[in-house]
Amino acid sequence: MSHYALTALANSLPATVPFVGPETQERALGRAFAARLGANESQFGPSPRALEAMVQAAAGVWQYGDPENHDLKHALAAHHNIDPDHITVGEGIDGLLLTLTRLTIAPGDSILTSLGAYPTFNYHAMGNGGTIHAVPYLDDHEDPQGLAEQARLLDAKLVYFSNPDNPMGSWHAADTVQGLIDNLPRSCLLVLDEAYIDLAPSGTAPDLLPETDNVIRLRTFSKAYGMAGARVGYAIGPKSLITAFEKMRNHFGLSRISQAGALAALHDQAYVAEIKEKVAKSRATLAQIAKDNGLTSLPSATNFVTIDCGGDGDFAGKVLEQMIARAVFVRMPAVAPMNRCIRISCGAEDAMALVAKTLPEALKAARAS
Question: What is the pLDDT of residues 217-276, one digit of tens each?
Fold first, then answer.
């Protein structure tokens, strides 16, 4: 018999993780993936300046990182031309979501998201006792009008909305997002996940008005900046909410190495511009590969392309399994009708060549099974 007792809430939750990592699949396969294209990491890597800064910072890894993230926070404020008190830094968007849900959700609170959207938000919301409600996607896009309507009906505490979107790669124009902000009840906080915003077309992000009291915007160094393993994200919001993060955040969550790398990466915007060009080229390559195989690629404002396999979720699942069997790590949306698709991250030319080789093989094997 154990000498400890979990809370009733903890006992009610399944032991799970939102995503099965590629490492888990590699252990099951007994070999490494030849192409890692399922987690929307940047194969292009970080700025050389960021790498150099992290190498230099490694000698001081015996020291804790600055718990205030002062230099990075002030650099981000200057980058966005806002007051540093509107910004908090955390261990990626996932870490920020954990703190945000701890701050705002009480057991039984209604929490609203899109059906099939980023599962880590649900994981943290349920971990704090929230009751998840979901609005279906509309034409492979999140449905802002449906979210606003349901938020009013449910008296939702939080609404999660990503723009651009994962897993479909779709996006809404800034005016549409602003309309969602304007139409939510004032008692409802919009959690606006902008992880992919650096890769999106101009006019995707609404104006940055950080004192808007019903919005918190989440951004990351994991995508365009190529630093997913460093775990650096930041939130922009009203000062009252950002200050509240000091009540619960992990003050030593970011290492000195991560802080140094992110600061150097932020200061190398020319490199980010190069990455945007490389991602755009890779998106076009993936779209052509899909077309060459008689499939349809969905328009994307992210560093991945979602490809309609032309069948149902069972068929797409078979294609996914066959790609993984050929040592190409990809993923697929979890919810119908989006699960008719597979999702492939952008990458370097050799990775794209491997996709071009293995996708027709996987399709043939899936159709024969």
Answer: 999 999 999 999 999 999 999 999 999 999 999 999 999 999 999 999 999 999 999 999
Quote the tokens at residue 277: 């060009």
| Distance between CA atoms of residues 346 and 365, nearest Å | 24
Which residue type, as a one-letter code, is found at position 174?
A
Angstrom CA distances, 256 to 41, 75, 87, 103, stand at 22, 15, 19, 26
pTM exceeds 0.70: yes
Strands (E), the chain: 35-36, 87-90, 110-114, 131-135, 158-162, 189-193, 215-220, 233-236, 296-297, 304-308, 328-329, 341-345
The whole-angstrom separation of Cα 357 and Cα 355 is 5
* Residue 3: per-residue pLDDT: 64
In tens, the pLDDT along 162-185 reads 999 999 999 999 999 999 999 999
Token look-up 């794209």 returns 352
Nearest to 39, CA basis, from 27, 23, 28: 23
User: How far is the C-alpha of 344 from the C-alpha of 283, rounded, in Å?
Assistant: 9
- The dihedral through the CA atoms of 78, 81, 82, 83 has a sign that is positive
- For residue 27, the SS3 value is helix
Rg of the chain over Cα atoms, rounded to whole angstroms, equals 21
CB 133 within 8 A of CB 110: yes
Nearby residues of 271 by Cβ (< 8 Å), 6 or more positions away: 47, 48, 49, 265
Which residues are registered as beta bridge partners of 259?
Answer: none
Name, in order, each residue with C-beta under 8 angstroms of 325's C-beta and a sequence gap of 6 or more. Answer: 29, 362
Q: How many CB atoms lie within 10 A of CB 21?
A: 12
